[in-house]
């Protein structure tokens, strides 16, 4: 019930709203967002498949007003529009009032592209976990479009804090682990007291996500704690580099992982998926990355397809396995 109240508070669903649900229903981001419409008696549409034309056609045919998307689907829709495969004038989309997105870090460049194509849309980013009954414990808010790039502020009924390695609150804007507290926090992991004790502390849930908070209280997701690359003693947060790379006009998707290096411990490797019909060289990527601090620049560039799971998240473990980085720590300690 609290998840439904959170959605109502954030997005004001009404009886006339039509929610388009695309993700699999086992994904909390799908059904929990719809719950805001459920308690107002709003209609929900289930769509199987993520073909860009099918999404746009369904929005038009079913008069959808609210659509929750994942990053790769937004990319595919915009690329199809740019390529002329979707002509917006062929569809009735004037009723579409809200596009919100979540389940993973959202590149600001992607939302800026979306707003140019759909300037009348309200936009929101949502953050949550299965352990917090899904999305909404942090959200950007439709009135904070100037803060695109942030995951937002505490959601309705929620509290947040950033913690250092000792579990102490960080207040100076430094990067630490995000913790959340609210009515949606789980009671425990089923029959796993050890795992429960690792993440629950006096009602606070340690999320495993690294984040920072600015002076206005907006939270910026930096990366998963386990995905941080330590290169020559410097912390590299892959999401920051991935967001930078996705601003390149030829790049469709990017993933950054750590690869073993005898001198630096590990180096950042960028796996890059190009847009259909586009070409790019390693030298062009290296030149583009000159605007990054030297230690953040990828030391290796690999052009390949980026694997994502059904909920749109990059499959980093699969990439580490493909490029033999899955046993990185063991390789370093045994060398």
UniProtKB/TrEMBL annotation:
Pfam families, alphabetized: AMP-binding, AMP-binding_C
Gene Ontology MF: a single term: medium-chain fatty acid-CoA ligase activity
Family under the similarity heading: Belongs to the ATP-dependent AMP-binding enzyme family.
Name of this chain's protein: Long-chain-fatty-acid--CoA ligase
Limits of the AMP-binding enzyme C-terminal domain: 240-313
Enzyme class at the top of the EC tree: ligase
Keyword Ubl conjugation attributed: no
Signal sequence, renumbered to the chain: none
Keyword Ligase: yes
Keywords of this entry: Ligase
Domain AMP-dependent synthetase/ligase: start-end pairs: 9-190
EC number: 6.2.1.3
